[in-house]
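Support case: calcium ion complex. Customer-provided input:
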Amino acid sequence: MKKIWWKESVVYQVYWRSFYDSNGDGIGDLQGVLEKLDYIQKLGVDVIWLNPFYESPDRDNGYDISDYESVMEKAGDLETFKELLSAIHDRGMKVIMDLVVNHTSDQHPWFLESKSSKDNPKRDWYIWREGKEDGPPNNWRSYFEPSSWTYNDTTEDYYFHSFAKEQPDLNWKNDELRKEIFRMMRSWLDLGIDGFRMDVINLLAKQDGFPDAEDPSHISYLADNPGIHEYLQEMNREVLSHYDVMTVGEIPFVTPETGLLYVHEDRNELNTLFHFQVADEMPVMDLKRYKEIQESWYKGTFEKGWNSQFLNNHDHTRQVTRYGNDGQYRVESAKLLGIMLHTLPGMPYIYQGEEIGMTGVRFDSIEDYNDIAMKNKYKEEVEKGRDPEEVFESLLLLSRDNSRTPMQWNETENAGFTSGQPWIKVNPNYKDINVEKALEDPSSVFYTYQNLIELRKEHPVMTYGDYTDWSRGKDPLYLYTRSYEGITWLVILNHSDDVLDVDIPDHYAKESARLVIGNYQVTIDERGHMPEKIRLQPHEARVYEIKENQVT
Ligand code: ISL
Ligand code: CA
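Agent response - structure generated as follows:
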């Protein structure tokens, strides 16, 4: 297996509009990220992923771009970005940008031209089809709308959008379009950025002929269509292969088999990926299934590709709320999830605030929410005649705004995020959960994350170790090993609110061992040997190191 810098990296995702507001307009900004770099550096991460800050009408919080080569005013300006980029590099960290090239904003000049007439030179940069029987060309829905087609009066036909109607899909069949995207990518790479996170990059190719779907509610027809790998191999040939950069594809709907095709090191497409088998299959933790998914992705991608480990991001509810315990055992649970993600195979991603155990939120009404996905779904369901209160309740757990509330810096007003009116309400629990408190408390979640990141730098077993699950069928116990060059790490997790007695696998019991990290005060027997049985407290996590040359 090839060793390379990005495989050994931990990535910190900065959703800048919720990170820190430097100028009091209520919205986070790039200058705010610059002012908080000491904090990010203290955590010890290697790479910072910045969500999109290109010019945008902001219908989907920057994922609807109207100019790929300028910075949206809310975020700041190109000079500030360049200052941030060099400050990040000066601190020995790298930065990856968000590449959103499946679609643009409907306000992008390219689209305004394309929709203006059927013979406009940019007409074919987007996807247009005649309607059928006074309706859209087919029965597909989109991520954010009941139909993935919107009628355009001027040309009396429909344009295609995988997301909101304000996000028309680009036509990657068009050679000129692809050339323009590659040129744009090079202009950002020539500034010195260290790579891209690629938004829904497996949606670029569309199904030929746009046939009706058997069941339009399963929108996987948007992804993995013939031609996608040729586009990515061309992108690699024309752009990526000329730079020492890292790429991570956001690739919904894939399995390990189809996912590997995007990240196999011999295919010259992308380096790593985010899959969504966990997020799409389990609204809350299903540990049995989680273990199966981890095993299949390890077997499917570890040798020849590379996977990511995450349980939340700007689209997915904060993990301690969704997959852990954000009440009585919030701190222990947040630490357990961190220890798990950083000891499983693949690159760990930390979503801002996860490192201090920030939780999901519950606002009183739909007016308190910003997320276009949630608001469109609410409108769609209420228009079907469903009870608004019931619809609202049904959308709360998975609303993307759960993870978009402002970063909680301290217990002053608005959690120290802004001196103005925050663009979205702050989570009311900020007085208890904030950075200032975390840094003052040696037993905070923050220091567990800082420790995990330090350990990765010293222990290649975390990056390159193999993976064996010893706990099939033993939920809520999750017990696995990572082994590399004579070192084995034994990871023992109690995913429950109850005490759990654990039998250590015979292979490791009584071997000399040392506790590497845990989330409760633990003593290990004075002889430094692995006990045969241990009792775990609720949400307790322990990692032991066993030197195999002493394993009999
Ligand atoms: O549906 C998901 C996984 O299967 C979600 O993670 C997510 O909506 C989807 O993966 C697309 O997300 C990305 O593209 C969207 C944007 O709204 C999201 O914020 C972005 O992460 C459209 O650009
Ligand atoms: Ca601001």
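Residues 21-23, 25, 27, 29 surround calcium ion (ligand 2) (CB under 6 Å).

Case will auto-close in a few days if no follow-up is received.
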